[in-house]
Amino acid sequence: MSLLEIRNLSVRFGDADAPPVVDALDLSVEQGEVLAIVGESGSGKSVTMLALMGLIDPPGRITAECLQFAGQDLLRLHGRQRRRLIGKELAMIFQDPMTALNPSYTVGYQIEEVLHQHMNLKGQAARRRALDLLERVEIPAAASRLNAYPHQLSGGMNQRVAIAMAIAAEPRLLIADEPTTALDVTIQAQIMDLLLDLQRDQGMALILITHDLAVVAETAQRVCVMYAGQVVETGRVPDLFDAPTHPYTEALLASIP
Ligand code: ADP
Ligand code: MG
């Protein structure tokens, strides 16, 4: 069985007769694989991921025939069971690192909170592990950054902190939703390299939402193309790049200089 299995997922906002923004979507992710998702702005990529993370609040409505992660039905999990899975086994980083970070707490504290909640680490043990994680995400002078607040760090460093928080609980699947779009061009490649290093080291699966087809070609095993709320094609990267079947994919590939 796949690590993540989505069948017939729809998400609607507004009136009952409003068109769904995610429309009968099927998608699966295997253990340890990198799946890229591409698609123009507004095609439903983020909403799909937010639905998985349980982050669509009413009046948004989700329906699905199957929304299973690690053998568990995400729509039927509640309370502690749900928190044990989401945030631990299934983690997400966002375009804006501040979506994951709280401006009022030091980065050390925020990483330690994840370690406490999901890994049962406290005190010195949590502190040491938080420092390990900051070093793992290659934050310079990591020890002194533990006491820094997000506003004292650059966007790129905050994204590294967000990544450290996301991997602190050793997730089996990390969702990265345009993780470098908001960052300086000069550091985009460094952050992407870091993510892929971590993916390989930890053997975790990665869903990578990106507009960068060069990154897709280099890193992903499979790619899924979304258009107007639907998956219009999915396939192995070389196959799909060599022989796209949907007009949007053709146009996308033709746009590469
Ligand atoms: P993208 O592929 O760029 O990530 P999104 O998943 O963010 O696209 O959005 C898909 C569609 O859903 C867009 O038309 C967007 O305006 C709409 N949408 C997203 N969130 C909401 C919301 N909370 N309420 C109403 N419409 C929303
Ligand atoms: Mg988006």
TrEMBL record:
It is found in: Cell inner membrane. It is an enzyme of class 7 (translocase). One of its GO terms (molecular function) is ATP binding. Keywords: ATP-binding, Cell membrane, Membrane, Nucleotide-binding, Transport. Residues 4-253 form the ABC transporter domain. It is a peripheral membrane protein. Its EC number is 7.4.2.9. It catalyses: a dipeptide(out) + ATP + H2O = a dipeptide(in) + ADP + phosphate + H(+). Signal peptide: none annotated. Belongs to the ABC transporter superfamily. This is ABC-type dipeptide transporter. It comes from Serpens gallinarum. The chain holds residues 1 to 257 of 324 of the full protein.
